[in-house]
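---------- Forwarded message ----------

FYI, see the Diaminopimelate decarboxylase record below. Original note from H. follows.
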Amino acid sequence: MLDNQLLKIAQDFGSPVYVYDAGKIESQYKRLTNAFKDVKKLKLNYAVKALSNISILKLFKSLGSGIDTVSIQEVQLGLAAGFSPDQIIYTPNGVSLDEIEEAAKLGVKINIDNLSILEQFGTKHPKIPVCIRINPHVMAGGNANISVGHIDSKFGISIHQIPHILRIVENTKMNINGIHMHTGSDILDIEVFLYASEILFDTAKQFKNLDFIDFGSGFKVPYKPGDIETNIEELGKKLTARFNAFCKEYGKELTLAFEPGKFLVSESGYFLTKVNAVKQTTSTVFAQVDSGFNHLIRPMFYGSHHEISNISNPKGRERFYTVVGYICETDTFGNNRRINEINEGDILSFKNAGAYCFSMASNYNSRFRPAEVLWYNGKAHLIRKRETFENILNNQIEVDFSTKIEKQLVK
């Protein structure tokens, strides 16, 4: 998006505000489908947890996407957005059997990553098809918090426990219709991903009634100029050839599934903030904005990088600034960044704000969560109102402390 378009949105809707470019979402979706165009059956299931606004979900539905959900609430959101149950896969972790059964009643695809739950579910519901999440014990991801396929991860059933899975399937006569893995986010080396895929293929051979193999996602997007990213086109060529060969060996055309989230929405997003104050200390110049990690936690949580630009003064002289928020706790967005000269009242734009920004936002310090705006067909559409003080109090219940309770002596 252009700086003048973003500035107009900040003026019209106030700051802070999240902005999403629908055109970028569509181009990322097409890029991924084009990379795997030689697969006969391809299914992309957008990972709802990245950005769950119902208008975003409806946009993906219009593109032909399914959705990947991790909670019963995300399942319900998907249904409310118009997805049919067979377009929704439910991949929880650490939830109760009751929640899995609730999802199964809604008719969505079930993905289980726990031996105990698998046996309980198979015993009670042997006729309901189930996908199994495998942990390939392959380390991937740019941060320990987002690497989920290694041996110490809480996610998935270990490949070394395949005999246990097979015993449960034999004893319960349950129907396994899919095999799944997810190694982690920010995959840099596609060879590591392909290596994990071979483990998944070997596992798939153990099950004779599969309909699909789900390779998860975790594709890295660039966070700054010159940054490396997952080579989707090369991965598409190599994995397509291997997948098609496997289908011939298996004797059936399976569906190749992915569940991308960040790859599809991260670069579409901009987070706009206003500069409240420019503060000079003995060693640092702080640009203090009207937000904090209550709205954009990723830099403090993951050490993630978001490019920051001053869209109010794009041609100004560059200076070094440390951009911080207004939370009563350390909330640094970027240290010693070269940014065009900043004055109080300027609007700063944070890039890559489409994934895990609003969805991880909170009311910490009793601050309101910002509005969300979708730029679609050359027009700004408000898709979530800014919160108000009434929203903060909405579910709180006040106790009446005005009545004094007399103490009674027991004789």
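H. also flagged this: The CA atoms of residues 58 and 81 lie 6 Å apart.
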